[in-house]
Amino acid sequence: MAKDIFRIAVIGAGETGTPLLDKLLDAPFVELLGVADLDTEAPGMRLARSRGVATTTDFMDFARLGEAVDVLIDVTGVAAVREALRQHMQDSGNHHTLIVHETVVQLMLSLLGGRLVQLKHSVEDY
């Protein structure tokens, strides 16, 4: 069944997450449920707050929303984040929410920009 609106949360609000957030915030078919990052002053966190979008430093806040989230976009580049999200989905029985990896985001942004976009991640761990 086709969707009219996508309920999305973004994990990671730095150099990779911010350009994605720009696109998501302007899409009338996206309900941005929130943005998570350890750095409350990351560019995407500031952008989200300026547009009235919820922010948190605990990415699991969005996983705990269960099936109220259609897509969790992880652009942290941290394997432990992906694993924690996958484990939570398995443990909670959530077969609805999709977890999107930063490689898919790189592909989407590259297609939109008409050129290969390089992702940048710090070594910071969650």
UniProtKB/TrEMBL annotation:
One Pfam family here: NAD_binding_3
Secretion signal span: none
Organism domain of life: Bacteria
Stated name of the protein: Acetaldehyde dehydrogenase (Acetylating)
SUPFAM superfamilies to which the protein is assigned, alphabetical: NAD(P)-binding Rossmann-fold domains (SSF51735)
Domain Aspartate/homoserine dehydrogenase NAD-binding: 12-87
Annotated source species: Azospirillum rugosum
High-level lineage: Bacteria, Pseudomonadati, Pseudomonadota, Alphaproteobacteria, Rhodospirillales
